[in-house]
């Protein structure tokens, strides 16, 4: 059974109600317009930014913890290519965004770096990449900062 997560408030549910386009209906907790379908349950911790992208890698929603984690307001992210805007890099096995979109596979626990707004140096993060299972394609990117003790 699929699991759904709200990109805005990170509420998880097993609801399978869908609209006429086959997409899950909006969040019953916060009212956000759509839910993101996952194959397995996923918990987004309080310090995990959830970013939704279209099939062209452009950010279409920046929700749960996105501003506190990245330093960017949603308006500064919408329409931007996710890897370049967030300064994601130092991927251990190629570009996980490309792999997720092209092959429709999850990329979990990717230890990489990103560049928060206003900082001049990269910060260590763990990122998870989930493919969209609707006709539009795209992906959900979950970015969680790593503490100094985690990556030493």
Summarize the model shown:
The chain has 152 residues and is of the alpha+beta class.
Largest sheet: 5 strands, antiparallel
Mean pLDDT: 90
Percent of sequence in beta strands? 25-35%
Low-confidence stretches: none
CATH class annotation of the domain at 44-145: Alpha Beta
- Helix percent reads 10-25%
- H-E string: EEEEEHHHHEEE
Strand order of the largest sheet: 5-4-8-7-6
Assigned CATH superfamily of the domain at 44-145: PAS domain
Structural class: alpha+beta
Distance between the termini: 38 Å
The CATH architecture of the domain at 44-145 can be named as: 2-Layer Sandwich
Number of strands: 8
Number of alpha- plus pi-helical segments: 4
Radius of gyration: 15 Å
Secondary structure topology:
Layout: E1 3-5, E2 12-13, E3 36-38, E4 49-53, E5 59-62, H1 66-70, H2 74-77, H3 82-86, H4 96-103, E6 107-114, E7 123-131, E8 139-145
Antiparallel strand pairs: 1-2, 1-3, 4-5, 4-8, 6-7, 7-8
How does this structure look, described?
- The protein is an alpha+beta fold.
- The protein has a domain at 44-145: 2-Layer Sandwich (Beta-Lactamase), CATH 3.30.450.
- The protein is built from four helices and eight strands, in the order E-E-E-E-E-H-H-H-H-E-E-E.
- The protein has helices at residues 66-70, 74-77, 82-86, 96-103; strands spanning 3-5, 12-13, 36-38, 49-53, 59-62, 107-114, 123-131, 139-145.
- The protein has a five-stranded antiparallel sheet.
- The longest helix has 8 residues, at 96-103.
- It starts with a strand and ends in a 7-residue tail after the last strand.
């Amino acid at each position: 059974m699929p699991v759904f997560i709200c990109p805005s408030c990170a509420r998880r549910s097993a609801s399978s109600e869908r609209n006429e386009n086959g997409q899950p209906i909006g969040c019953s907790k916060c009212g956000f317009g759509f839910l993101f379908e996952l194959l397995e349950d996923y918990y987004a911790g309080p310090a995990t930014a959830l970013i939704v992208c279209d099939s062209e890698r452009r950010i279409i929603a920046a929700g749960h913890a996105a501003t506190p984690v990245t330093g960017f307001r949603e308006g500064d992210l919408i329409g931007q290519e996710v890897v370049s805007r967030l300064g994601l890099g130092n991927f251990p096995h190629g570009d996980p965004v490309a792999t997720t979109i092209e092959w429709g596979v999850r990329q979990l626990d990717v230890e990489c770096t990103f560049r928060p707004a206003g900082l001049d140096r990269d910060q260590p993060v763990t990122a998870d990449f989930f493919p969209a299972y609707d006709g539009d394609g795209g992906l959900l990117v979950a970015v969680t900062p790593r503490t100094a003790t985690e990556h030493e």
